Amino acid sequence: MGSDTLRSIVLARNPTLIFGASEFLLAFLSLGPTPTFVPLVLLLTVLRIHGLRIACRSTRILELMCSWVAVTVGASLAHYSSASDALSSSTQSFAAVAVMSAITYVLAILPFYADIRLHRRLPTFWAQVTFLPVVWATTWAIVSHISPVGRLLNWSPVSTSHPFGWLLPYTGPMGIDWAVGACAALFSEVAAAWLMGTSNDEQPVQLFTSSTEAPQSNKRSRSLLALGTLLVALALPSLHVITPARTDTIFDTSPLGVACALPPVHKGQHPTLGDFITETKKLTSQAKVVLWPESAVVFNNQGEREVAFEELRKNIQKSVIGVAFEESVPRDPSNPGGSRMRRNGLALVHEGQKKGEEVIQYYKRNLVPFTESFSAIPSTEPPAIYDFELGPPKWATKPEWSSPPNYTRPVPITSSICLDFAFSSAFSSLSSRPALILAPARTWDSTVSLAMWEQAKSRANEIGSMVLWCDGGAMGVSGVGGGGISEIMQLGSGSWTRTISLQFPFDQRRTVYAVVGDFGVLVLLVVIMGGGSVAWHLPALSGSRSVLQAVPLLRRLFPGRRRDQENLIDAEVPGERQSLLR
């Protein structure tokens, strides 16, 4: 009786209020700067069931608008703390986030609309149940390529909240989005089976029925069981703990000291060039790679920049310094005397260079909307790889370390700057795998910094590399990620060092995802969707089947209950006489 009452409340008495409140709460919990897996899957489950319920109702437009408002408000509130300082006023910041959240909801609803309208045209139940995950992953892959903030507002979970992170080098973020969509599809099918049930749960389950729908229902249950088995199998590798490589040996690894230069900040002041040079000289005795945060120093012209680099080279020993700078350049290169704009870049400086020989490694390609888009110039040049010649540690001899004449080991280094890491295509142009990614950043809030930190780790894992994240924001997080490491070293100002270990000899072959890209992953997902025969012929062990049928919630997935499921609670509403199940 209790379960029937709950079903009646959900589907007949107060459906709009219940669905709206559930979507608001789950949006608030799951759609913040760092989305988490379980609340996100639950949100998608509720949205799918809600969509199936209102698809044939005359009030579907009104209910859809209510859902839009509920999710938009929940997502906007989840971003409130991170957006309050993004623009000149908190009101403007919140309004901008609300508009982007509203647009993102419309994009998120498209896969559900396609699923509800098109899934019945697919030939197998396996294809029908895996159609939503494929469309869901494809939608966010497209959005991430055209959105000005990349994947930052995507409904995609951060790597630490789910057991599918090991898929990144093989499928990239599309594989994670597919897993989210697959879990939502599976859970919504189970929830719909419960919602369409009756109070006769204690009746014996009929394993066979003379109904012509029995074979179809049997195939459907096997498809759902196959999808659940596949998701469990994909989650199992996460039980294997990946540990960082040892740093006390040089035979199959290359120990490398890395550092982030974050001089102490005096109230109301920004660290000067001299502050960064002084801080860097303290770090070079322990680190061979030192990174400055985004826009650490400002140069008005190229000559000023070269003078600063010459001063830096005087006492940095054998280290390479990643100098993140901001420079003023003409808006129109053909008119040097006209108006000027700024651009963010990163240069690699070491003592072997002469004046003018600095390696300008990278210029920022994606600008923060509103904050930078009107005052800075984006670059169109992709990142490149620089081979840093790493010498032996103090406790190893040159012959032990490498062969003559240089006695060094090459360390391929690339770079990107802050928001660029929100795009999964950030390193798609590289022809080989880098060992280390330099990632200067400057964020305005710790939640934004954490969101970008998660994006940077994902990009590093996708291409099989490690990232040195150095955030100069007042509440920014800095650390090292990738290669079995996910360690935040500092919050706010304060320099730090850490020794990491790189594979030796380093394998520069690209990961599967780096080679095939999103399109190759999409082909794989479509192939999986077409593998319906695998689910149809999945052996149904009598023992496991009887266990599943002993559970009232799960036994509705098996044949013998279709006649009961055809009756909807709100059947008197025109257009309502269709099952939530297929």
From TrEMBL:
InterPro entries membership: C-N_Hydrolase, C-N_Hydrolase_sf
Alphabetically ordered keywords of this record: Membrane, Transmembrane, Transmembrane helix
Protein name as annotated: CN hydrolase domain-containing protein
SUPFAM superfamilies: Carbon-nitrogen hydrolase
Annotated PROSITE patterns: CN_HYDROLASE
Ranges of residues in domain CN hydrolase: 254-508
TM annotation in the entry: 24-49, 61-81, 93-113, 125-146, 166-187, 224-242, 512-536
Source species of the chain: Suillus plorans
